[in-house]
């Protein structure tokens, strides 16, 4: 489609200023340097404020909820078993480390699971780690070679929009597929599903159009509420969770029995599906070291073992 847009631009089918023209942002390539090595503190000393910290914490909370929902979805797309607790812990910890490094480098953004990449796995049916590793190397190269990164920036917006339609459509479809465990003939479940899907769309749209309406007298609290209420997946998840637990219903009707069997999160590092989430190298050493069973991000983690140490001290 990028090539088609280029042909239509050369033949002047697209008028000047049309968003699909490929020469709309060519000046970005011309202005971008050939090589530039980013380094920590390149924009000066970081500034810290209560409002900024609380606002980012709210964003981190919202991203955490999104990531936890993406992990099982990605596993299903790849035909892998549900991620165990240590894999989820490791994923969230890595995102936190990435956000910290982004702050040091002054990139102006945090790091979390990218929904478009999850959708790309569903479209391409490619879930190999090698693809992620090569993509990471390519992004590092783009960050150092300025003109290479600028080439991808000039992709026409309609093409990006088309990609988003396909990818987010796949994400939505895989998310809705989880409802197969729920009794969809129940009016209780239909009400919860409908309200949890529609209300967040309305609220987040209203929040974006009236960003200054929340005024509690505390700037930091206003920023936190603005971020939380503008995240549709967080609002929908909280509302769905509250309604599902407040409105009476049987475990079978709610789909808890079938879901527990299908998507149970095994805490033990070594299980029948443990190899999927093991480290690619060094597992022989990790299994020998007993102290790794206390770390919640290691494949050999045993739930409750770390807290048991404190219970023993208290009892003694």
TrEMBL record:
GO terms for molecular function: transmembrane transporter activity. Keywords: Membrane, Transmembrane, Transmembrane helix. InterPro entries: NCS2. It is a multi-pass membrane protein. Signal peptide: none annotated. GO terms for cellular component: membrane. It is found in: Membrane. PANTHER family: XANTHINE-URACIL / VITAMIN C PERMEASE FAMILY MEMBER (PTHR11119). This is Solute carrier family 23 member 1. It comes from Parnassius mnemosyne (clouded apollo). The lineage of its organism: Eukaryota, Metazoa, Ecdysozoa, Arthropoda, Hexapoda.
